[in-house]
């Protein structure tokens, strides 16, 4: 392979990667239905671009890192990347640079009056097997919610790395709750959110 060919591959690969990732961003901003597929394809495009971008020549032999590769490997990689060429070539993200903030109703954004709602507690607790009592705290001080009418999402990451997703919650009070059926010592993570 000669340097001019590799330079051409590198330039075109970067152009395709920019086009496709711009298309992905446009998909996020416009709420494209197939955004998960666009995201997966975008990861592939960036991987293929990375292969081309990290290739260099020693003499006429292409390398990536300290490993010699073949011209055919680079050609095949470029061929795979070329499949994405032009898919999003007309995407223009400049129209998104002028965003008028609002509160979702189309009018001007108006700040909330007063203080933010105090409707959630998030924290961690060291636990052993069995049950554990949780007392709500904010900045190290007890901080109960306004009522016991809240939902709790809780899970445990054991000291060995196992994740327990099903934790029974009982004894809910405004000040905290009890987590039951903990099967391994570790850290309990929780999010408690007032329902009303």
Q: Can you give a write-up of this model?
A:
This protein is of the alpha+beta class. It has 2 domains: 3-96, no CATH class; 120-194, Immunoglobulin-like (Sandwich). It has 3 helices and 12 strands; from the N terminus they run H-H-E-E-E-H-E-E-E-E-E-E-E-E-E. The protein has helices at residues 3-30, 35-53, 71-82; strands at 55-58, 61-64, 67-68, 120-127, 130-135, 137-138, 141-142, 150-158, 163-164, 168-173, 176-182, 186-194. It has a 4-stranded antiparallel β-sheet, with no helix packed on it. A hairpin with a 2-residue loop joins strand 10 and strand 11 (176-182). The chain is elongated and about 70 Å long. The protein starts with a helix and ends with a strand. The model has no long low-confidence stretch (mean pLDDT 87).
Q: What is the number of domains? A: 2
Average of pLDDT: 87
Q: Main β-sheet: number of strands, strand sense, barrel status? A: 4 strands, antiparallel
Strand content: 25-35%
Distance between the termini: 68 Å
Q: Which structural category do the helix and sheet elements fall into?
A: alpha+beta
Write the layout of secondary structure elements.
Elements: H1 3-30, H2 35-53, E1 55-58, E2 61-64, E3 67-68, H3 71-82, E4 120-127, E5 130-135, E6 137-138, E7 141-142, E8 150-158, E9 163-164, E10 168-173, E11 176-182, E12 186-194
Antiparallel strand pairs: 1-2, 2-3, 4-12, 5-11, 6-7, 8-9, 8-12, 10-11
Helix pairs in contact: 1-2, 2-3
